[in-house]
Amino acid sequence: MLQLAAPETIVTITVLAVLGVDLTLLRGKSVSTRFHVGAVVSILGCAMAGWFALARHEEFNLLNGILVVNPVTDFVKCALLILTIFTVMISVTGKYTEHAGEYLSIVLLATIGLMFLVSAEDLLIIFIALELASLSLYILTAFNKHNARAAEAALKYFLFGGMSAAFLLFGFSLLYGMSGSTNLTEIARSLQGRGMDPLLLVAIVTTVIGFGFKVAAVPFHLWAPDAYEGAPTPSAAFIGAGSKVASFYIVAKIFTLAFAGAEGSAVWHGYVAGWTPTIAVVAALSMVLGNLTAIVQSSVKRLLAYSAIAHAGYMLLGVLAHTSASNSALMFYVITYALTTIGAFGVVAVVESATGSDRLDNFAGLSRRAPGLSLCMLVFLLSLGGIPPLAGFIGKFFLFSAVVNMDAQNLGLLWLVILAVAMSAVSFYYYLRVLKQVYVQDAAAEAPAIIVPPMTMLALALLAALVIVLGCAPSLLISHL
Fold this sequence. Notes:
Layout: H1 6-23, H2 31-55, E1 60-62, E2 67-69, H3 71-89, H4 100-119, H5 123-141, H6 148-179, H7 184-191, H8 198-215, H9 223-230, H10 233-257, H11 275-294, H12 300-321, H13 324-355, H14 366-369, H15 371-385, H16 391-406, H17 414-439, H18 454-472, H19 475-478
Antiparallel strand pairs: 1-2
């Protein structure tokens, strides 16, 4: 058991090591020192766990889906660990808290929950892992005691998260009642030939609602803008990146395995009851509302929050297509989006630390105040907008192509792809609003100088390089998915 869960075990030991070092050897040291030492320990632990996950190539299935290990799950775990490393690297300024060891430990605990979520094919373990990760994220949201918005945002996040857990647990209980099993494959086998009876429809709807909250899809998105704005910026980065990777991986797995045979149809003028039309409606609403609302935001973190809602809509198209090609395209899109999001939030964290706010006008003249930082922001925002040859463009191309090819003869899902392309064009406007401030507007005379911490600058440079490299050579990533 410990060998199968070796990456998670290593990260757990790292949590204890971070706490132990912080509470003993670093007692009385400055917050900056404690953050840097804790960050080094965390990075080493995550790197060791990632190496162990990549080194093994066997496939295991422990106790009928409680822990499933294969090359794909191990690769997704490595992606989560890399995202955790970058989150830790942009967290080292530590001005939002004096509890360095506790903060880093909770980030690692959230990672453990997400890693177990990726390996689960049993409803009970999925729920437990999801709640472990969610509880950690609630705490990370409220970590800045000096910001009144953080407590409000965390409370909203917690209340909406509790509500989503109730819906999800209710849907899972219905699936267990209809099938007599909590294993995803056995559930699908039991539901074969059952038809779309009311209980199954309720299970589909409640499951979509539960995960809709987790991925911040419309109309279950109300917590996201406040949580992104109120949380410490590194916490918001991890919420928008790590949780999306694991959540969309398990969403695709649940609907592809457990609800096999109950897909229905979302093709134009060919509606058939099932989970695909439900996902299609949520995806369309997310793309439209997320992009249109982002246009009017003056806070860059709220802008990125509504952008995340829109991107959740794009990602749901990959779930909707439910083919092997679309699943690979979905994970490529989610991982590259996560890398880009952490980078964008990292830039915001530096500007916010220097100016005291993430307002759009605080980015004025950034290209002359911090050229390297502004260049990274250019790469991240153009990738989010889908400009070639960056990873965001390749991700959208793969994803939209997979959705069209699912029904290549009738092009029944073309309406969703057209909507997604149109909304991507809309997104250029608000990304360019930020870049206009960075490269065109002049900074105010009293604007403070911006000094980028070396570890943060290293993380941002690596993230920008990854976004460019994965856009030019996508096979480096998609071949593992």
